[in-house]
Structures are given as C-alpha cells and as structure tokens.
Write a structure and sequence with these properties.
- The protein has seven helices and two strands; from the N terminus they run H-H-H-H-H-E-H-E-H.
- It has a two-stranded antiparallel sheet.
- Helix 1 packs across helix 3 and helix 2 packs across helix 3.
- The protein is flat and about 95 Å long.
C-alpha cells in the first residue's frame, strides 16, 4: 500500500479560510501545495465551494422579538397528556381482571389438571438437515401454562392500575390549587 501524505486535522477550516481569502500568504501557499498534490482535497474544496456559495446568499433566520416572553409565559401551563385516557384505561383494567378471573376460575375447577403434552423437537423439519444429534422432548403442563398466563395478567393489571388510575390521582393531589 502506498503511504498517503499526512492531512492536517483542521483541513476543512483551512479550505474554508482559503475560499474566504482569510489565510496569510504562507498558509495560502501551503494549502495550494496540498491542493496540487491531493485529488481528494481538490474534490473537498469543490464541495466546500458549493456549500459556501449556497450559504452566503441565505439570510439568517431570527426568532421574533416576543419569542422569549411567550415561552416564559407558557412555562406554568400544564403539559399535554399522553398515553391512555382514564376511561380507556379503566376498560382495559376491567378486561384484564375479567380474563384473570376466568383463568383462575378454570384453574380452580380443574379444567387444566389433565392437559399435558410432549413436544418432540426431532420432528421439526428444519432440525434434520442442520442438526446431527437427537434433541430432547419437552413436556408441557397445561396447568403451569395457564398459571403463568394468569400471573402475567396480574402484572399487567397492576401496571395499568398504576399508570391510568393511581398516577393521575396522586399527581392531582400533589399539584397546588387542585
């Protein structure tokens, strides 16, 4: 591999100063020497010329005179609510609790006591061409699966209860004047 000449770290700044004629004669000569030997810097200079030309004609936008005043006046306003509305959250909470109750009732009635199955991983078609050894069979207990689903529903119900009902309730109590 050919060893490239070392490029200064601030070459973009030097090229921009070169375009704006802000360099001393010695620095200008140094940049011109680099430009004659390096094609990549010539391309970079062309890109910077285009960018510089486009920006010099632009007028800088400034905020209106009362921008700071209007922002400062709005600081005390309450933020826009995001997330679930209270009524949707209550319906979701009722649905989760009903699902959890039905699952618990079915568990207590013994519906899932006799439901268990075995999954043989060797019968999966993808394993035969890629896996050379035999895989174990997995026994799945229906009662355990439903218990896990009921537990996850309980966790979801607690999260919804916290986010939709308890958090807004306690925020209203904390805020003065409400």
């Amino acid at each position: 591999m050919e060893e490239m000449e070392k490029t200064p770290n601030n070459i973009d700044e030097q090229l921009l100063d070169y375009l704006d004629n802000k360099l001393s004669p010695a620095a200008k000569s140094s940049v011109e020497n680099l430009l004659t030997t390096r094609d990549d810097l010539q391309k970079r200079l062309q890109i910077l010329k285009i960018i510089s030309h486009n920006f010099h004609g632009q007028k800088r936008e400034e905020p209106s005179k009362n921008f700071t005043f209007s922002v400062m006046n709005r600081l005390d306003e309450s933020p826009v609510k995001t997330g679930l509305s209270t009524s949707n959250g209550i319906f979701l909470l009722i649905g989760v609790i009903l699902t959890m109750g039905i699952g618990a009732w079915l568990l207590s009635a013994g519906v899932f006591d006799q439901s268990s199955t075995t999954i043989d991983l060797n019968k999966i078609p993808l394993t035969q061409p890629y896996i050379r050894f035999t895989l174990p069979s997995i026994s799945v207990d229906g009662k355990l699966v439903v218990n896990i689903i009921v537990f996850l529903n309980l966790a979801l119900a607690l999260i919804v209860l916290d986010r939709v009902i308890l958090k807004p309730l306690f925020q209203r109590r904390i805020q003065p004047g409400q």
